[in-house]
Specification:
The protein has five helices and eleven strands; from the N terminus they run ββββαααββαβαββββ. By secondary structure, it is of the alpha+beta class. It has one domain.
Length: about 220
């Protein structure tokens, strides 16, 4: 199914603590009413595929290069000594964030832009990657298509990330699959609290001490 143009109509409903959003697609018959959480939904779709333009790609490439240079010593301590692989991983992670940002700005939602500031490893934060409408905290996770085809759909999380143990009501996880260096598939956000009991040990033993895995088959997501 392709992503089709639509117009957004917003109205308030006079019931306490309720806010409704009307998404209309080419005619009254197709009007659907959503609760405020469905501001994040992708309109009758389970995912959207986003193709990145060259301007954003160049920004992400520059970010990856600067991030690597700033944290080169830290990567070496972790046993990561392949500059090309490190920069590629940084690129793909930020590419997914841009895809999510474009997904929501394209449907006229207020969404903070991906952070391009360069931090040292010791200053790593678990804060949200972006915020939609000043109320929904989005945490973006991505996996490469070739890895998904080889090992199955899964996304890695840090064990000590509060998102996996004690998420806020406003926290959402946005899962992505990076199809290639230009295109990302963005799935609908999932409430982080609904995922707390879904995390499992990664299949790779070397990751089990620091990571938790979320498997697509456990949450109804397929390629």
């Amino acid at each position: 199914m392709t992503w089709s143009p639509f117009r957004l109509v917003i109205a308030t409903y006079s019931v306490p603590c309720k806010f409704w959003v009307f998404f209309a697609t080419h005619g009254v018959k197709n009007i659907r009413i959503f609760h405020k959480d469905s501001i994040l939904n992708l309109i009758d779709m389970k995912h959207r595929e986003v193709t990145m333009n060259n301007t954003y790609k160049l920004q992400i490439i520059d970010f990856a290069e600067k991030c690597y240079r700033t944290n080169k010593a830290e990567y070496k301590k972790r046993g990561q000594d392949d500059p090309s692989k490190i920069k590629q991983d940084i690129y793909y992670g930020k590419l997914a964030e841009y895809a999510v940002w474009l997904t929501y700005t394209d449907i006229n939602q207020e969404c903070t832009k991906p952070d391009l500031a360069i931090y040292r490893g010791k200053n790593k934060s678990y804060s949200a990657d972006m915020v939609v409408n000043r109320s929904h905290n989005l945490h973006v996770k991505s996996q490469l298509l070739k890895q998904a085809e080889q090992f199955g759909l899964s996304w890695m999380f840090q064990k000590n990330d509060p998102l996996v143990k004690s998420p806020l009501l406003s926290d959402y996880v946005v899962l992505c699959v990076t199809l290639n260096a230009n295109k990302v598939r963005v799935y609908e956000p999932i409430k982080a609290k609904d995922l707390v009991k879904k995390y499992k040990k990664p299949k790779k033993k070397q990751l089990q001490s620091t990571k938790l895995a979320l498997y697509g088959k456990d949450i109804g997501i397929e390629l």
